[in-house]
């Protein structure tokens, strides 16, 4: 019995040690699995939330259903080409294409552009849409008559100047979330973050011309 007790005593710690080793191995595998999943998720999600513009930090924030409806309301009785500056996942471009516009989106984030193309194909409007991977500051918008912008306050003054220089007088610019600093909107709809401002460039230029004519008379 004494020898048997000693043998059992020797085996018990060994079995316990093997159990701890198995537990430790499973713990390492579980940790590695969770870590790998988080890395993969980060790799997929990061392109959708990183800044879409280089000059201004403009993260991807999907347009709400109300914002899209307000944009479409501002496009009623309009025709011609349409461009969405910073088109994100393409929902505004696709919604405009469904209304008959030849719609184009410019987006710096390639993942969002590829996803937009897939969505357009899935919704059956890929023939009326185009998506380009491009920095908006390096693109001319001179041949578009309808422009949609989801911007941030920091970019609006410079973008206002760029569009003023490039667009024709018959262009309409639709700003979402934030208005342009100097232009006076011709139409406004929505509330809060869903507010949309529409600017007819011929009127904005008219205001500038009028103010320039008044200045000399005031000075004299």
Automatic annotation (TrEMBL):
GO biological process, one term: methylation
Bilayer topology: Single-pass membrane protein
Tagged with keyword Cell division: no
One cellular component term from this protein's GO annotations in UniProt: mitochondrial membrane
Residue stretches spanning the membrane: 26-45
Principal subcellular localization: mitochondrion
Keyword check for Mitochondrion: yes
Name used for this protein in its record: ATP synthase subunit C lysine N-methyltransferase
Organism the protein comes from: Ptilonorhynchus violaceus (Satin bowerbird)
Phylogenetic classification of the source organism: Eukaryota, Metazoa, Chordata, Craniata, Vertebrata
């Amino acid at each position: 019995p004494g020898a048997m007790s000693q043998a059992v005593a020797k085996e018990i710690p060994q079995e316990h040690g093997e159990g701890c080793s198995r537990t430790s191995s499973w713990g390492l595998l579980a940790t590695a699995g969770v870590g790998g999943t988080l890395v993969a998720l980060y790799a997929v999600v990061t392109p959708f939330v990183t800044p879409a513009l280089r000059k201004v930090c403009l993260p991807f924030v999907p347009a709400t259903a109300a914002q899209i409806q307000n944009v479409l309301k501002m496009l009623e009785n309009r025709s011609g080409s349409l461009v969405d500056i910073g088109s994100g996942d393409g929902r505004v471009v696709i919604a405009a294409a469904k209304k008959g516009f030849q719609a184009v989106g410019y987006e710096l984030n390639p993942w969002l552009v590829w996803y937009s193309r897939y969505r357009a194909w899935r919704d059956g409007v890929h023939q009326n849409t185009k998506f380009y991977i491009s920095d908006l500051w390096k693109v001319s918008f001179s041949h578009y008559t309808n422009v949609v912008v989801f911007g941030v306050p920091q970019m609006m003054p410079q973008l206002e100047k760029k569009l003023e220089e490039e667009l024709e007088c018959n262009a309409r610019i639709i700003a979402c979330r934030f208005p342009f600093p100097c232009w006076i909107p011709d139409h406004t709809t929505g509330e809060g973050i869903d507010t949309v401002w529409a600017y007819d460039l011929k009127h904005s230029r008219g205001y500038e011309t009028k103010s320039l004519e008044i200045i000399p008379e005031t000075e004299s």
